[in-house]
Structure formats: structure tokens, C-alpha cells
Amino acid sequence: MNTPEVLGAGVVKRATVLADGRDLVYYDDPGTTLGSDRAVDARALDPRPETATMRLDVLTGDWITIAAARQNRVMLPSADADPLAPQSPTNPSEVPSRYDVAVFENRSPSFGPALADERGTAPAADDAPRGLADLDELGLGRTRTSVGRCEVVCFSPEHSGSFGTQTVTRARTVIEAWADRTAALSSLPGIEQVFPFENRGEAIGVTLPHPHGQIYAYPYVTPRTRRVLDAIEQTGPDLFDRILAFERSSSRVILEGEHWTAFVPFAARWPLEVHLMPHRHVPDFTALDETERDELAPLYLRLLRGVDALYDSPTPYIAAWHQAPVRVGRHAVRLHLQLTSPRRAADKLKFLAGSEAAMWAWTAEIPPETSAARLREAVESVADPRSEGHE
């Protein structure tokens, strides 16, 4: 294990490797009750799979990853077979030791390394992208190795829960991990954008109930971000400043702090859609200062708990943290959360049918102002996470 490193807020980082050479990083809470020792991963694992392949959709310019190895992922295991729980004599999971927060390379990734590692455990890409200009070129039958990285972020050693069920201290540790991993992944060869996210609920397609998220590091600028860059080019580099001012002056604000504002966007697509944006322009988590990270932890928790207070059962959602690309548009694309849910009533979901799925032409059944009023009331009904008293 590498020498421990102290990060912001007193979080301690401990980096090591799994039995097949994949990276594993522990992030210890400040004041953790865990000791400094971590068990060695002694499993006998199969070699790491060959990196997946990308194929170009010449009609849209989108690159589609073909990752057949992901077909065999674990599906809703019981607590005694949870692959994200700490290892036990009967559960040879992915994390050898008890932990606060743990991050490791996905065993069945959509994106893999560009170069073989020094340990000889990671396969080298045989046809890596040759930069953004190469990926922008249209042509029939174009393929490239799906270079990048997929990591799993375990928010807790417990078998069930989500980001919103964590304490303020734990949420702050995860935020520190997001920033640290964003910096590390952005420095890897061939990486153009880094994306932390959380899928929550079976209706979203979640296969593990364990509280966790993921981080994808892409070899290209993602299609949504390309559309954002086009909008900035057409309207001016201060677009996010103008959006934030416009939304803060509306009736769609849900929650507001000194450094962050949560709002239902003017043209929300989903029955439940909330954006959370910093007041200062920052391209990604690495650029947030300590006060912004400190405020984000309880504010984000309260927002998520408000989402769950809408109904008698937890709400499925995708919590997508959009960050600026590594090299382009960093002065203009602002870090922000886009939280979406297909839940349009207690027992109803919105499905993407012909117009949305085929033509990308959306119809929203719930006016954003109506959604904002309901969500604001729900957020106001939950306690401030800072009052929990078990940090």
C-alpha cells in the first residue's frame, strides 16, 4: 500500500491494488474508527478482460461502446454475496477490508486502459483513438479501442442505502473522493472528460442495492457536452452565469445556500428534474474550494432526502455530475448536477416512447413550476442534515 495522503477536510487517502492489478483507493473519514492497516486481496482472479471496442454511428457522430463482458454482471445479490461489501470468509467481494469510502476499477468496464500498466496486468489498447480530430472524422465502419476508465465509488460498507442516507461527514468524504479521482483520471492518457454519477433504484436499472456510484472517464467529449459547447459558442461564454441568474429569479428555486442553488430548470424534460449549480464558475470538483465543498455536503443530502419525501417509498433517480472536458471549454462549461427521475406519480413512471426515444423530441407532462412547488415543500419538510449530531 502506498503512503497515506491527507486530503481536504481531514480525509485520508490510502491507495493499493486488487489481486488482478486493478487500483483500489480507500478514503477514510476524518476521525475514522478504522485502523491504518488494510488486508491484502488474496483472491485468485481471472485475467482482466480485453478492452472493449467503440463503433462510430456515422449518422450522428456518436461513438458506441460494445462491451460484451458486462453481460455477466451480478444482479441484485443478497447481503451475504454483496460484491461491494468488505470481504469476509464467506464473501470474496471486491474490497478486502472494512472501509468508510472505497473506489476501485470496475471488473467489467465499458472503457479500459490505453497503455499496459507496469504490473503487466492491464491489456494495452490495440487501436486507441488518435485525439479528438480523429474521433470527429465521419466514415462507415470506423472502430477504435474503447480507451478510458470505469470506477466504482462505494459510499458505505453497508449493504443498502444511497448517497442521501449518508451522514454529512460521509458525504463530505465522498465529495473529496470525487475531486481526487477527477484529478487522477483527467491525467490519464487519452482521457477527455470525467463523469461522476449515481444510479438509484431498480426502475433505473440498478443491479446492486449497495450505496454506490460510478465514475466514467471517456476518450471523447460526450454528446450532451458537445451540445452545451455549441450553445455556448452561439450565445457567449457567460451562458452559465446567465442561466443561474435567470433561474434564481424564478419560482423554480428549490434550495439555496451561500455557494449553491438547486432549481427545476425552465425546460425540464423529466417529471422530476433538478439542477444544482455553484454560484462561482468552476469546471469540475477539483476547482471547488473548501467552503464550497463543505456547504455542498449537507445541501445535497437535504435535496436528496426531499426527493424521497415526495412519496411513501424511495424515488429512483440518476444523479449526474456534469464536468467540463479535460481540455476544451473549461472556461465556459460549469460543474453542475442534473438529477432526473422518471417517477411521475406514486405508482407511475414515464417511459421514453416513440417521440423521445426515436426522435429525441420531448414532451413534459408536469409543468416545471408545479414540480418545483411540490419539491420545495418536500425539501422544507426534512430536517437539516447538520442537526443529526452524529458527524
Automatic annotation (TrEMBL):
Residues 59-221 form the Galactose-1-phosphate uridyl transferase N-terminal domain. Residues 110-130 are annotated as: Disordered. GO terms for molecular function: UDP-glucose:hexose-1-phosphate uridylyltransferase activity. PROSITE patterns: GAL_P_UDP_TRANSF_I. It catalyses: alpha-D-galactose 1-phosphate + UDP-alpha-D-glucose = alpha-D-glucose 1-phosphate + UDP-alpha-D-galactose. Residues 248-377 form the Galactose-1-phosphate uridyl transferase C-terminal domain. Belongs to the galactose-1-phosphate uridylyltransferase type 1 family. This is Galactose-1-phosphate uridylyltransferase. It comes from Microbacterium candidum. The lineage of its organism: Bacteria, Bacillati, Actinomycetota, Actinomycetes, Micrococcales. The gene is galT.
